[in-house]
Amino acid sequence: MNKLVLWGIIITVAMLGFTYLAVGTSEGGLNGDVVNQLAVAGAVVLVIVTVFVVIKYVRQMQNDTASGELADENWDGIGEYKNDLPMGWAVIFLLSTIWAIWYILAGYPVNAYSQIGEYNEDTAAHNKKFEKEYAEIKNDPARLIEMGESVYLVQCAPCHGLKADGIDGKAAKLRHNRLDYASVLYAIENGSNQLGGYMTGMMPAGMASGQTAKDIATYVANGLKGETGSAAYATACAACHGANGDGMNGMAPNLTAFSTKLLNSVLENGKKGGIGVMPSFKNTLTPLQIDAVEAYVIDISK
After folding, report:
1. How many angstroms separate the CA atoms of 82 and 80, rounded?
2. For the segment 204-261, what is each residue's pLDDT rounded down to a tens digit?
3. Given Cys at both, which of 105, 164, 253, 282 links 174, Cβ 3.0 to 4.6 Å?
4. pTM exceeds 0.85, yes or no
5. How far apart are the first and last CA of the chain?
6. Rounded to an integer, what distance in angstroms lies between the CA atom of residue 151 and that of residue 206?
7. Which residues contact 24 (CB under 8 A, 6 or more apart)?
8. SS (H, E, C) the chain
9. What does the pLDDT look like over 57-73, one tens digit per residue?
10. Is 184 exposed, middle or buried (0-12, 13-18, 19+ CB in 10 A)?
11. How does residue 289 score in pLDDT terms, banded at 50, 70 and 90?
């Protein structure tokens, strides 16, 4: 027997043996799970096909010589022969296509059981039960803030810090500070279209630039106090945000204090700013939890 074939058989047997030891002898084994069975069957086929293909083409490299008509195109003197597609490749492609169709429609159809689907259903049922059980908290501000603190510590503190101080500029500072300099400057220079629900709509980019933009960012980050940037703010920003930065009764975001409307938009849609990108928590938190976090953040930012 050819040494190459012998080594192929040895490697195949060894790999199939390892597969059996890893799956067949483990607790539960395949346990009638069609997904595991298909995965193992696929692994077996992959091993056999891989070894067969390696043997075939190694032997070709050892014994075969190039033949046929060269294509007209070449690259630095390296050309290609106009040979037909190898029959084995065509057969494997056809069989793979047939197997894929069978797998989707019969082997593991798209509407079959899945752990992710079960998890999503369980989560939805739990969230519904949670919302119903704690619905009355909305009418108790103290308990709502207490719930918001619990949710904040789990979902928000890793970025914003346990004390909501932004962890040295890694995220927005939420305590005793309305907006941070980097976020304001980013919005001035790049615009902001992620805050929905305001009558003034998207904030366009380039409302100011250069030192003027930096002065406005400093002025807003200081709570609209001081002389630096005040005149530029009045010219570029006051028409929408108001002379006092209060958002003109919801026409635009309030720049002096957090509002439920602003926090709700950020939590549900996420936000991209000068510090980084905050993801959306729409599918992570329930509506009640979002209300609670908003109440907590507003409370600690006063």
Report:
1. 7
2. 888 888 999 999 998 988 888 888 888 998 988 888 898 888 888 878 888 888 888 8
3. 164
4. no
5. 84
6. 37
7. 30
8. CCHHHHHHHHHHHHHHHHHHHHHHCCCCCCCCCHHHHHHHHHHHHHHHHHHHHHHHHHHHHHHCCCCCCEEEEEECCEEEECCCCCHHHHHHHHHHHHHHHHHHHHHCCCCCCCHHHHHHHHHHHHHHHHHHHCHHHHHCHHHHHHHHHHHHHHHCHHHHCCCCCCCCCCCCCCCCCCCCHHHHHHHHHHCECCCCCCCCCCECCCCCCHHHHHHHHHHHHCCCCCCCCHHHHHHHCHHHHCCCCCCCCCCCCCCCCCCHHHHHHHHHHCEECCCCEECCCCCCCCHHHHHHHHHHHHHHCC
9. 888 888 877 777 888 88
10. buried
11. very high
Residue type, 221: A
Asked whether 259 and 295 are in contact (CB, 8 A), the reply is: no
List of residues 6+ apart from 155 with CB closer than 8 A: 281, 284, 285, 293
